[in-house]
């Protein structure tokens, strides 16, 4: 596999925004994503294959904690271990820090990925996400990975 995981550059932002729009119901706007790219504490990493960005993750460091904000793999590249590879890299890179995240309780692929790399459930934040179907807001599952 001609693949590479590397820190994102400003030139990657169009590809990252396109992946976010494709993969996340609550994707941020193009301008917000670009703004975070330039903000201290936010860190974007991209996974590319044959020079095409097919995945990324975004973290935010706050004090001694790291928040996993987003992780997306292009739809046609899922179930090949790329998400696991990216989070393995994140965990190695943030060794010694507590890593936190929240995820829609219906997002079984993401929850499966988080559990597969060692995240544990902390609890639920009721009605945290907009409804994907119908009117009832969806709960977030809170998870952490201890250093
Ligand atoms: C979540 C996501 C990043 C997973 O990426 P991926 O590259 O397909 O995941 P992997 O192939 O590395 O799978 C890793 C583990 O996750 C779990 N998993 C993956 N897809 C799953 C699914 N559909 N259902 C349940 N578990 C799943 C499995 O345990 C798998 O481990 P295994 O292969 O050893 O059994 C991908 O589905 C995605 O981009 N979804 C849309 C964006 C999103 O919802 N991101 C999370 C919120 S920010």
Number of DSSP helices? 4
| Ligands | coenzyme A
Which ranges are low-confidence, i.e. pLDDT below 50, for 5 or more consecutive residues? none
In total, the number of strands is 7
CATH architecture: 3-Layer(aba) Sandwich
Strand order of the largest sheet: 1-2-3-4-5-7-6
Oligomer: single chain
CATH topology: Aminopeptidase
Global geometry:
globular
The N- to C-terminal Cα distance equals 31 Å
**The CATH homology group name:** Gcn5-related N-acetyltransferase (GNAT)
Give the helix/strand layout.
Blueprint: E1 3-7, H1 13-23, H2 30-37, E2 42-49, E3 52-62, E4 65-73, H3 82-93, E5 98-104, H4 108-116, E6 120-129, E7 138-145
Parallel strand pairs: 4-5
Antiparallel strand pairs: 1-2, 2-3, 3-4, 5-7, 6-7
Coenzyme A is lined by residues 23-24, 70-73, 78-84, 103, 107-110, 112-113, 116.
Characterise the protein shown here.
The chain has helices spanning 13-23, 30-37, 82-93, 108-116; strands at residues 3-7, 42-49, 52-62, 65-73, 98-104, 120-129, 138-145. A seven-stranded mixed β-sheet has the order 1-2-3-4-5-7-6. It is globular and about 40 Å long. With 147 residues, the chain is of the alpha+beta class. Strand 6 (120-129) and strand 7 (138-145) form a beta hairpin. The protein has a single domain (3-145), classed as Gcn5-related N-acetyltransferase (GNAT) (Aminopeptidase, 3-Layer(aba) Sandwich). The structure holds coenzyme A.
